[in-house]
Design goal:
TIM Barrel; 15 helices; alpha/beta; Chitobiase, domain 2; 3 domains; binds zinc ion; eight-stranded mixed sheet; eight-stranded parallel barrel
């Protein structure tokens, strides 16, 4: 039987028969090979143990491996100009060759997926696979801000990425809600009681990822999505004031802004060896404030610009100069660039294109190099797209395709448009926004593997059903062996035991809202919501209500009005017709969540408030039903 490989290699030529791998075998690394080749051999040894119970030893050897051995060799050959290309030959022994250790690692991953175990026998089909990626940038973005992701989880995800030949982990570290990067120059960004990664932890993570062939690219959002920084250092604000969610923006003109960014980028550059740094630059919602600020107006005058969009470009240009001084290349989200507005940012910055064809097409025309991270279909979790689009929509995507128009909740398929062949597309990445850690993997797999496949083998034939069959036959079990929970075998939800008096939140206690009977921690809330008419945006507010009694408007914590540390909000969800189902997870002490439509994330709040959870509809004609609160695994 042919191994169910993901991603499918470009060229496979199987012969009849299979090589049986012995229980104790040798992996041969040429004596002159660089240390990295021995490290790659170590990944193979660990994988053989994990996948097939084989105990392999690593040792030096010359040309041509003896029977039954696996030899890793660096060699120029066809496709050698691509450092990620490899050839895997299986005859009486196994040989993996590549011009670079990067290619050897991908050959090792293909060999591990090719190893089929039946009883005590492990075999690999004979033949030759020669392979190389369609795109050099194959990524995943993890959002550690809205919901802190622990390092074990991130390491596990890196291992899965490596197994499917994804090579860039884009780590979203800074946003309105929290600041997850230990910042020595500005320690107030790391708020007491809120988890963050120390620089030492991140250095270790970078090294771990590098071992698995994955590069970590950090993202720090400026000048918007900056509530944490602005509230910690209000002198970053035009009026030197703390701000609410979505209302924070760095002053463009004050020297302190640039000193702040410079020192943060300096620390990041020291921790992350990647050639790139992502500085966000998306959604500067509060940019109007720049028009009334003396410092921003002075900057406008100095740069000879008259519009806010042009002023924004000068900001992006200065970001570009700044990161170059730190030896890095700048990445920004695509909405940082306004075609036709001088001064245009230089074309050699990398555009992370998260929107639809209508926006991305003009950027491609202008000659920018891009990553395709279009929210349709690559937002695999949360935000407006809730659980993301179905596997078939992901299957139909590749790095040249953007939806037209954009993706919306409820879309089953997307109408894709293809960028011209002249467009510079480095690759792409899926995004896991705002998702509670326990939910992330349920959302990611197997769709992330389909993204990986389409970035590696862009012109692959086959449909979603064929892909899913291959996934079930191979990678699904591999995920379990790597420690990814099997949600189908063991659902995470357990209803509250009614014996201990814990209650499921039910019943109407006011027009359109329900109150649970007790307070909870580590819970999953599900409910169904119906808008008065299709096409509505925004949904519900959920808040903790200290002493909020039944039958009265709860005097809960008004989270929209006063944003505490740890607050999260979302907007912009278009509701479908009829009932929409929502799921929210909170971890740790109960915290207020605002949900303007189907967001599944959690917050750890340093000042937990006791009291029941209130689920309240936001307007006339909104209806809620099927409200359930369930503990997460391990919750008491
Ligand atoms: Zn200003």
């Amino acid at each position: 039987m042919k191994p169910p490989l993901i991603p499918v290699p470009h060229h496979i030529s199987y012969k009849s028969g299979a090589l049986r791998l012995e229980r104790r075998m040798r992996i041969i690394v040429p004596a002159e090979a660089p240390a990295r080749v021995t490290e790659v051999a170590g990944i193979l040894r660990d994988g053989l143990r994990e996948e097939a119970g084989i105990e392999a030893s690593i040792g030096p050897g010359g040309k041509g491996g003896p029977k039954g051995t696996i030899r890793l060799a660096l060699a120029a050959g066809p496709g050698a100009e691509d450092p990620e290309a490899y050839t895997l030959k299986v005859g009486s022994s196994v040989e993996i060759t590549a011009s670079d250790p990067r290619g050897l690692l991908w050959g090792v991953q293909t060999l591990l997926q090719s190893t089929q175990v039946s009883g005590s026998a492990a075999t690999v089909p004979k033949g030759t696979i020669s392979d190389s990626p369609s795109r050099p940038w194959r990524g995943l973005m993890l959002d550690s801000v809205r919901s802190f992701l622990d390092l074990d989880f991130v390491r596990r995800t890196i291992r899965v990425m490596s197994a499917c030949k994804l090579n860039v982990l884009h780590l979203h570290l800074i946003d309105d809600q929290a600041w997850r990067f230990e910042t020595k120059a500005f320690p107030k960004c790391n708020r007491p009681g809120e988890p963050f990664y120390t620089q030492a932890e991140l250095r270790e993570l970078v090294a771990f990822a590098a071992r698995y062939g994955v590069e970590i690219v950090p993202e720090f959002d400026v000048p918007g999505h900056s509530m944490t920084a602005v509230n910690a250092y209000p002198e970053l604000d035009c009026e030197r004031r703390p701000r609410k969610m979505d209302e924070a923006i760095f002053c463009s003109g004050r020297p302190f802004t640039w000193e702040f960014i410079d020192r943060v980028v300096g620390e990041a550059a020291d921790v992350f060896p990647s050639a790139y740094i992502h500085l966000g630059a998306d959604e500067p919602y509060a940019i109007k404030r720049w028009a009334d600020c003396p410092d921003c107006r002075a900057r406008m005058k100095q740069n000879g610009v008259t519009s806010l969009e042009a002023l924004y470009h000068t900001f992006v240009n200065d970001l570009d100069d700044l990161v170059r001084r730190h030896g890095k290349k700048l990445i920004v989200w695509s909405d940082a660039i306004h075609p036709g507005v001088a001064p245009m940012p230089p074309q050699d910055i990398l555009i992370d294109a998260w929107v639809d064809f209508g926006t991305v097409g003009p950027l491609a025309e202008l000659g920018y190099t891009m990553l395709n991270s279009s929210n349709g279909p690559l937002y695999l979790t949360s935000f407006g797209l809730r659980e993301g689009l179905p596997l078939a929509a992901v299957e139909a995507w590749n790095a040249t395709k953007f939806p037209s128009p954009g993706a919306e909740l409820g879309d089953q398929v997307l109408a894709y448009k293809t960028l011209s062949a002249n467009a510079h597309i480095l690759g792409g990445h899926a995004s896991a926004w705002a998702t509670e850690q326990l939910l992330t993997e349920r959302r990611l797999y197997p769709r992330l593997l389909a993204v990986a496949e389409n970035l590696w083998s862009e012109d692959r034939a086959g449909d979603a059903a064929e892909f899913e069959a291959r996934y079930r036959a191979g990678f699904a079990a591999r995920l379990r062996r790597m420690g990814v929970p099997d949600d189908e075998a063991a659902p995470m939800e357990r209803p509250f035991a009614s014996a201990d008096g814990a209650a499921v939140a039910v019943g109407e206690t006011g027009p359109g809202w329900a109150v649970s009977e007790r307070s909870y921690r580590d819970f999953r809330l599900t409910f169904e919501l119906r808008a008065p008419a299709p096409g509505h945006h925004t949904g519900v507010i959920i808040r903790c209500a200290p002493g909020g009694g039944a039958g009265t408007e709860p005097k809960g914590f008004p989270i929209v009005a006063a944003a505490p540390p740890g607050l999260v909000m979302s907007g912009g969800l278009r509701l479908a017709e009829g009932w929409d189902r929502f799921e929210v997870v909170a971890r740790g002490p109960i915290v207020s969540l605002t949900i303007n439509g189907g967001l599944a994330w959690s917050v750890v709040d340093p000042t937990p408030r006791a009291g029941p959870i209130v689920l309240q509809s936001t307007g006339k004609g909104w209806q809620i039903r099927e409200v359930r609160v369930q503990p997460l695994d391990g919750a008491k």
